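We were asked to recover a plausible sequence for a given structure. The inputs and outputs are reproduced exactly as logged, with field labels preserved.

PROBLEM: sequence recovery
POSITIONS: 858
GIVEN STRUCTURE:
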């Protein structure tokens, strides 16, 4: 396979202003008749019309301007249909037959449950019909769907419904028209036996929008939260960005088999059901938040993605980074801003930092790819969002809004670039973002060294800053990037604010700031709110970190100081150096005792950093030493503060289910406290957890208890796992949790249990959620996955190879954990490489898995 290069971009030779589709839906043989109005675009006179297709797809009929073409008048080149045409506008008809029920890749038109549905981003439309499948070809679509009325009573597509009717043969039809020109990746249609939760939203300018969330009838009671989130998102985008919805219908459909979280098709979002369905019995508080966040994300794409789309797939972060930033801010406005920021930074550190430090590192605007599906990454999405957030920080909320208004106005109805976005921000604010562009082109997480010195005699303090952007594949040398750092100074003795928060932009490799009139020893609070996606290296003592964790006025900075204190202590323990364990225990005690803090924050702040994150701090990951040190500290925290954990547990006792931020925070802290009670080794811990499990009136408490039990060796564990299975075996989304909790267990026998679960009758490679629930979770369980004998690597590689022919996109997502081999000692590294080599040597490998595995070896 040859790489696609960003520098090779050329505008399309032919445009397709209008598309008319006629689709006779049938799971075994769906007939698609496409009528394209095509017209040449200056630049490449004489170029033939090139339409993308899928492997093995052949047209049954082709006509140009109504005249059927003979076999010599067209050809198939690779997977493209090539038709020589005279300059000038033409009508091109093609007809193909496709088989949705055999489509296990879940791209294009496929069957899920009893439904037929589509997924076209990035390159799925070419599996439905021959078409220039690139985002800079924008068309107006009319779709006529025909299907069996009994089996598929509901027929949905983008835009407005313009007609329906019955046929004499038991089939019926529906016609939809979308007035907004769109790229084909935003095309969607769904046929099935669905019921809608219907509602309505009146836009700021008074237009009424019919809302529908379409699910299986039995799932209707689980759609209320998604509907509330949708309406809140619509109002938020009007208030914060001045963006109104633009069609009279907005539909969402939930499907059980989906490669990703959801898809923002114009007026017809299609969702992985796990991001729609929620009720207290089956969804945790985290699930509820994810539903709201993804509903908002897809809705926000209507402007950041659909009205303004991407010129080419190298610009993916233009819509994804911006839209993640928008959904993060929406969620922050709905609940606790500090806790939301903590969660988002956790995700960035768990998923994006390792990516940025490994063989698959790429900038948020990549330069090349083999398979675009591999670039829907934490870098494009989450680092992309951080880059937008830095612009927001530097320009201020109003300046950022001026820039986004200008961006939407200037680019509405077009396929734009990251450069267009930056230029709109610049012109609207009269600023030069020249150096900032490096964030788009350079990969790697910058490291910022921050050293504060104090001269008591002169009453001055000096902060020395230095940045290093590490080398990444293909980018050995980096230039410094503008890094906005929110910082403040506090008095170590008085606790007073000595220098209130300011934003300092570190633009050069090195820089220093002089602070006058600093009479007492200052303590540095830096990268507050995580203002830049960087690693801070400072020499703050355990005492100073403990001080900040108790006194900083930025809650994120308090969390961060506690984390750093825990990391420093654990790294020392892992490396066998003297460690200030007492400082951690006292800081946790102080946080637990602070009545001004809300429970949600406390629940986050007292958690030890994950084993994986600790691994990232070490020159070489030693999973066994990390596990031992972390579990040891957990146990001592549990024991020393046992009375405090029991008090916190009692104070947060279940008291009727409510979905308020306060009730959610209490549930969070309750399960965290239960975990520490179990870690202490208390004799009643398993019984306490089982009691919580059995008495729970909601999934958060039940799954929280199951998570604690899952790592224990106790009969209560087996009882809870069996009870959970029996209770939820018919509910796929909850059964996923049953697989995950066992894959994440810290027990010594986790690898065997997971291998056994892979043979369980409820395990299937065909459903992406299930595959991720077991294999994805196992690969994230550092200690179990990195078993010294290589059994974890072999298992995951076997699963990748087994899944690849069925669903290449999902299989490829399991490869990166194996690609981290450079971070391990030579024995493990060799075992990991051997599995990657075995994967690469497998005949018939998909392009998706080939790209990830071969680049991981490189
Ligand atoms: N835009 C979709 C991406 C799905 C493509 C997966 N290959 C989801 C989202 O970011 O909203
Ligand atoms: Zn998105």
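RECOVERED SEQUENCE:
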């Amino acid at each position: 396979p040859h790489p696609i290069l960003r520098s090779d971009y050329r505008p399309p030779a032919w445009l397709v202003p209008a598309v008319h589709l006629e689709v006779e839906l049938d799971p075994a043989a769906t007939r698609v008749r496409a009528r394209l109005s095509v017209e040449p675009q200056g630049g490449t006179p004489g170029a033939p019309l090139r339409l993308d297709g899928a492997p093995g797809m052949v047209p049954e009929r082709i006509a140009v301007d109504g005249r059927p073409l003979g076999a010599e008048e067209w050809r198939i080149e690779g997977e493209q249909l090539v038709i020589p045409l005279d300059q000038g506008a033409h009508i091109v008809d093609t007809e193909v037959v496709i088989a949705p029920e055999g489509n296990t890749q879940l791209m294009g038109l496929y069957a899920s449950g009893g439904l037929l549905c589509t997924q076209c981003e990035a390159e799925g439309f070419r599996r439905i019909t021959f078409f220039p499948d690139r985002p800079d070809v924008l068309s107006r679509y009319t779709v006529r769907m025909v299907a069996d009325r009994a089996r598929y009573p509901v027929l949905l597509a983008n835009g407005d419904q313009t007609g329906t009717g019955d046929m004499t043969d038991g089939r019926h039809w529906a016609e939809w028209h979308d007035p907004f020109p769109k790229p084909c990746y935003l095309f969607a249609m769904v046929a099935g036996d669905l019921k809608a939760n219907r509602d309505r939203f009146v836009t700021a300018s008074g237009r009424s929008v019919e809302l529908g969330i379409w699910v299986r009838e039995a799932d209707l009671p689980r759609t209320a939260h998604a509907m509330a989130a949708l309406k809140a998102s619509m109002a938020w985008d009007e208030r914060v960005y001045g963006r109104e919805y633009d069609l009279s219908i907005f539909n969402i459909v939930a499907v059980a088999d989906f490669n990703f979280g959801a898809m923002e098709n114009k007026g017809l979002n299609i969702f992985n059901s796990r991001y729609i369905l929620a009720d207290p019995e089956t969804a945790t508080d985290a699930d509820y938040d994810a539903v709201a966040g993804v509903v908002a994300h897809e809705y926000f794409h209507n402007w950041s993605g659909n009205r303004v789309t991407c010129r080419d797939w190298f610009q993916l972060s233009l819509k994804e980074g911006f839209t993640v930033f928008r959904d993060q801010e929406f969620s922050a406005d709905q609940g606790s801003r500090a806790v939301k920021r903590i969660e988002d930074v956790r995700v960035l550190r768990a998923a994006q930092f390792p990516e940025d430090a490994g063989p698959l590192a790429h900038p948020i605007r990549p330069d090349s790819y083999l398979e675009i599906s591999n670039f829907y990454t934490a870098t494009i999405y989450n680092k992309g969002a951080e880059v937008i957030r830095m612009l927001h920080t530097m320009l201020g909320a109003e300046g950022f809004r001026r820039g986004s208004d200008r961006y939407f106005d200037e680019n509405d109805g077009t396929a734009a670039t990251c450069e267009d976005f930056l230029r709109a921000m610049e012109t609207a604010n009269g600023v030069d973002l020249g150096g900032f562009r490096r964030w788009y082109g350079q990969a790697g997480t910058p490291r910022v060294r921050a050293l504060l010195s104090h001269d008591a005699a002169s009453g001055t303090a000096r902060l020395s800053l230095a940045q290093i952007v590490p080398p990444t594949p293909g980018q050995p040398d980096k230039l410094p990037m503008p890094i906005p750092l929110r910082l403040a100074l506090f008095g170590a003795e008085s606790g007073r604010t000595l220098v209130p928060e300011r934003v300092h932009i570190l633009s050069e490799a090195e820089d220093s700031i002089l602070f006058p009139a600093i009479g007492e020893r200052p303590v540095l609070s830096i990268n507050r709110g995580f203002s830049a996606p960087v690693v801070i290296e400072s020499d703050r003592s355990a005492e100073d970190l403990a001080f900040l964790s108790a006194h900083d006025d930025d809650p994120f900075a308090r969390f961060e100081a506690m984390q750093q204190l825990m990391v420093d202590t654990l790294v020392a323990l892992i490396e066998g150096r003297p460690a200030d364990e007492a400082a951690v225990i006292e800081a946790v005690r102080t946080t637990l005792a602070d009545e001004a803090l809300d429970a949600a924050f406390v629940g986050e702040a007292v958690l030890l950093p994950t084993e994986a994150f600790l691994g990232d701090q070490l020159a070489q990951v030693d999973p066994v030493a990390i596990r031992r040190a972390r579990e040891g500290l957990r146990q001592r925290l549990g024991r020393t503060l046992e009375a405090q954990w029991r008090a916190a547990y009692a104070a947060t006792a279940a008291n009727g289910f409510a979905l308020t931020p306060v009730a959610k925070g209490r549930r969070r802290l309750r399960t965290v406290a239960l975990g520490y009670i179990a870690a202490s080794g208390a004799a009643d811990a398993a019984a306490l957890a089982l009691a919580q499990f059995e008495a729970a009136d909601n999934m958060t408490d039940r799954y929280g208890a199951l998570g604690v039990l899952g790592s224990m060796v106790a009969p209560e564990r087996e009882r809870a796992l069996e009870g959970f299975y029996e209770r939820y075996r018919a509910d796929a989304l909850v059964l996923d949790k049953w697989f995950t909790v066992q894959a994440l267990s810290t027990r010594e026998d986790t690898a065997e249990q997971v291998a056994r679960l892979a043979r369980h009758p409820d395990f299937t490679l065909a459903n992406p959620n299930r595959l991720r629930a077991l294999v994805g979770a196992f690969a994230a369980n550092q200690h179990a996955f990195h078993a010294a004998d290589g059994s974890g690597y072999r298992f995951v590689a076997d699963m990748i190879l087994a899944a690849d022919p069925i669903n290449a996109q999902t299989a490829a997502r399991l490869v990166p954990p194996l690609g981290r081999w450079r971070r391990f000692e030579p024995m493990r590294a060799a075992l990991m490489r051997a599995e990657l080599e075995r994967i690469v040597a497998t005949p018939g490998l998909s392009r998706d898995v080939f790209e990830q595995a071969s680049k991981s070896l490189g």
